[in-house]
Every structure is written in structure tokens, then in C-alpha cells.
């Protein structure tokens, strides 16, 4: 079980309070699909993903990015039991979608970059440390079914 300090909880909640889900989620997923093009293979039903411009203007990518951020919101609201919160999602991604679990880490890295760019100097080293700890727990929970 992960132990969260009051400061870490406050940092995570503060970050979420500043997020525009409809902006941050799409940007993070778009960045992932552009920087790591092999991740596109899981989104073949989304249509044209042939280049960065197509990815950036794809409404299905944008919508799924927003869904991802709302999913992270669930983890934030259940920080003491993220693994149980994500048990079904882990099963879906491993057994039905067959997503390479390393892609969760790639998306987490891209999300961190987008948040850092958006928050600027308010994304302090302490905030980043708490955020990356949070994402590490989320990624671990999503990878749970793979073990």
C-alpha cells in the first residue's frame, strides 16, 4: 500500500484543480501518438493518424484523451485504493485490448510534460515529485493484470 503525505495529497489535488480536462487530456494523448508512433496501433478505429497534423485534428483522439483524464480523476478520488479502482480497467487493457503495458508509462511521461508546460513555475519540484509518484502508482495499477 502506498503512503501519501498530506503535502502529496494537496499537490495532487491542486494539480487536478488546475487542469482543463478537454485541453490537457487530448494534448497528452496526441503527444504520445506523435512521439511514440507505435502506440497508434491501438487506435486503428480512430481513422487517419498518418501524421502529426492528422493526429492533432482527430476528434476521436481528443475525446479519448479527455476520457483518460477523467479516469485519472477517479484515481485521485481513490488514492488509498488505486489498484482496486483500476482492476477492471487493467483487465480490459490486458485481456481484451492487449495494450503493451509500457505504453502507460509513455503516456504518463507525455502527460507530465503537458502539465509542466501548462502550469509553468507553479509545477514545482515538490509538485512534480508528488505527481510522478501518483502516476507511478496509476501505471502500476494498470499493469497489475499483466503480472
TrEMBL record:
<keyword id="KW-0408">Iron</keyword>
<dbReference type="GO" id="GO:0042744">
    <property type="term" value="P:hydrogen peroxide catabolic process"/>
</dbReference>
<dbReference type="GO" id="GO:0005833">
    <property type="term" value="C:hemoglobin complex"/>
</dbReference>
<keyword id="KW-0479">Metal-binding</keyword>
<feature type="domain" description="Globin">
    <location>
        <begin position="3"/>
        <end position="147"/>
    </location>
</feature>
<dbReference type="GO" id="GO:0004601">
    <property type="term" value="F:peroxidase activity"/>
</dbReference>
<dbReference type="GO" id="GO:0005344">
    <property type="term" value="F:oxygen carrier activity"/>
</dbReference>
<dbReference type="InterPro" id="IPR012292">
    <property type="entry name" value="Globin/Proto"/>
</dbReference>
<dbReference type="GO" id="GO:0031720">
    <property type="term" value="F:haptoglobin binding"/>
</dbReference>
<keyword id="KW-0813">Transport</keyword>
<dbReference type="GO" id="GO:0019825">
    <property type="term" value="F:oxygen binding"/>
</dbReference>
<dbReference type="GO" id="GO:0072562">
    <property type="term" value="C:blood microparticle"/>
</dbReference>
<keyword id="KW-0561">Oxygen transport</keyword>
<dbReference type="InterPro" id="IPR009050">
    <property type="entry name" value="Globin-like_sf"/>
</dbReference>
<dbReference type="GO" id="GO:0046872">
    <property type="term" value="F:metal ion binding"/>
</dbReference>
<dbReference type="GO" id="GO:0031838">
    <property type="term" value="C:haptoglobin-hemoglobin complex"/>
</dbReference>
<dbReference type="GO" id="GO:0043177">
    <property type="term" value="F:organic acid binding"/>
</dbReference>
<keyword id="KW-0349">Heme</keyword>
<protein>
    <recommendedName>
        <fullName>Globin domain-containing protein</fullName>
    </recommendedName>
</protein>
<dbReference type="InterPro" id="IPR050056">
    <property type="entry name" value="Hemoglobin_oxygen_transport"/>
</dbReference>
<dbReference type="GO" id="GO:0020037">
    <property type="term" value="F:heme binding"/>
</dbReference>
<comment type="similarity">
    <text>Belongs to the globin family.</text>
</comment>
<dbReference type="InterPro" id="IPR000971">
    <property type="entry name" value="Globin"/>
</dbReference>
<dbReference type="Pfam" id="PF00042">
    <property type="entry name" value="Globin"/>
</dbReference>
<dbReference type="InterPro" id="IPR002337">
    <property type="entry name" value="Hemoglobin_b"/>
</dbReference>
